[in-house]
Amino acid sequence: MSKTTRSEMAPWPLVMLIAAPLPLGLLDGAAIYWPQAPAVALCYAVSLLCLLLRGLTRTPRTEAALLFLGVASACLSPFLLLADGVDPSSGAGTWMYLFGASLLLWRVLALLAEETGLLRWLGPTLFGLGLLMGWEIITRGFAVPSVLLPPPSSILAAIPTHGGELWDDFCQTVLKSVVRGYLIGCGAGFVVAVLADRLPFLARGLLPLGNLASAIPVVGIAPVMVMWFGFDWQSKAAVIVIMTFFPMLINTLAGLATAEKIQLDLMRSYGAGYGKTLWLLRLPCALPFLFNGLKINSTLALIGAIVAEFFGTPVVGMGFRISTEVARMNLDVVWATITVAAVTGSALYGGLALAERRLTAWHPSFRKR
Amino acid sequence: MMTERLRTHLLPVAVMALAVLALWYAGALWLNAPQVLDGFARAHTDHWTLSEFARQAFSQKRPILPTPDQIASEMVQSLTGYPVTHVRNLLFHTAVTAGSALTGFGMGVVLGILLAIGIVQVKTLESSLLPWVITSQTIPVLAIAPMVVVILGNIGFSGLLPKAVISMYLCFFPITIGMVKGLRSADPLSLDLMRTYSANGQQTFWLLRLPSALPYLFTSLKIAVAASVVGAIVAELPTGGQAGLGARLLSGSYYGQTVQIWSALVMSALLSVSLVWLIGLMERFVVTGKRGGTR
């Protein structure tokens, strides 16, 4: 992390300079330039100053912070223009400035790529924020109709205004369908795998079936389950059980096979029986595989519930909300629901990943970090 | 050797398949019983034998659970009774689904490989993009399927492309992850050898890294092609039942045509399995060295 390891910056962000003579946008049909928009010109000056002062910084971290200031003030400028009633969509200067700023952000990311510890998440976070910012600026700058793509800010605004609905959908889809289906499906897969491990005949019969199940679109079973179990959460849970059973089965079987012969011999020399060996040696060895199965299933479970809701549901639930609001062109509610689903999916996955790290800290794949 | 293999591998599979079939028929008997009893009550048939009951349960017009032979005969009738371009021919719907799945698969392969090359070659991309590639998959992607179809429909794209986009989204992830792993799996000894030949970065990439990534690529391709079929089927749901296996599923569920649903399901399974098999066949031709990259 010393100064000498810092790579040289390519001069590309200097394309910002091209923006200087170009128009910023249209105000009442007339093109306006930098002097007519002092606040934006100030942003521009700040960005250029950050570029100039870059050479004075001593560590990658301070350089990244300085350049980030330049990027941030660039991001501010289109909103200042919009607030003044300027239409920036034809303003070549604005877009050239922003293009330069995105190249500058790239440099910031490159500087942060070397970070370790908690700071190593800063790079991906900035990248994600940059994508959101680009989405916001493009949808608002070009006045994209919200039927096509609403800007992130209006999606965010839709979350509190439709909070009640979103919460009800969350309860119906996640708390009722997903959690129950997931627990039953993974539990059944696990129990059958342990049984199959005890009876090799069963395992040899089930494995090809499991491989087949991983190749076929199991989610297609949803309409059948809706017919059998009705519109409420039971049918969704049933789809999830079927979708999650085989991944869990296959992963558990693979995991139970990982204990090494020498370890098994050691357990035998201690006089440990089948149960003790399973509990103390083979299941802990299988944990990475179990978590792999649980993680795959966490995504599958949400997909299963939402797709099953397309086939019929009581008037609540994420899949129902998405399909009805799409038909009514309320795209911000749709996106808000998707945000909730995305956050739920990521939280499930992240929680499992944390638990995995807690429980399998001994595993080689975690040692290096 | 052969009989040994037969005993240890084929026998359990055969027993399992038979058990599934037996369970299926038992399930059909059980689930269709109320319908049959209802029918008997309406016809005032008080005395019926078990065989009569079973025959009725296995030949309901709209059974809760159709039997495998009902599904098979429906499929045979649909495949042979109409010309291939007819709406009632299942092959027509399969072709529609396969078309969008394969288009999406192709796009996903290109996107996935390009992302993987970018991630392997550019350090900044690895640290900032890779976490998002992984996060993108924790999002229930299929939830946005109807919206993508509607959005793309609004800007004038309809038909194949929206469905292909969804397939692509499902496809690219396993390919990116597999390729990243594969491109990094080149043997250090061989890398050193390339250096002694003074090969430059590009030569090393084309002659060593890419070939050594192929086994990983094919493993990912198999996962991805199965995912692309799922994507295409789900993407057909919101288009309102025009063509495709997903549309068959939806219209079957609207009109309570269980046999139609099940034959569409079997067809999609066949499509998916044969695509995976095709990839496996290609793999055998392309990858001649030792196989690796299991997942």
TrEMBL record, chain A:
Keywords: Cell membrane, Membrane, Transmembrane, Transmembrane helix, Transport
Span of the signal peptide: none
Domain annotation ABC transmembrane type-1: ranges: 188-359
UniProt-annotated location(s): Cell membrane
Keyword check for Transport: yes
Biological processes, Gene Ontology terms: transmembrane transport
Chief subcellular location: membrane
Name of this protein: NitT/TauT family transport system permease protein
Organism encoding this protein: Insolitispirillum peregrinum
Automatic annotation (TrEMBL), chain B:
Topology term for the membrane: Multi-pass membrane protein
Alphabetized SUPFAM superfamilies for the sequence: MetI-like
Principal cellular location given in the protein's record: membrane
GO cellular component: plasma membrane
InterPro entries to which the protein is assigned, alphabetical: MetI-like, MetI-like_sf
CDD domains: TM_PBP2 (cd06261)
PROSITE patterns, sorted: ABC_TM1
Domain ABC transmembrane type-1: from-to ranges: 90-283
Family designation: Belongs to the binding-protein-dependent transport system permease family.
Protein name: NitT/TauT family transport system permease protein
Organism: Insolitispirillum peregrinum
Organism lineage string: Bacteria, Pseudomonadati, Pseudomonadota, Alphaproteobacteria, Rhodospirillales
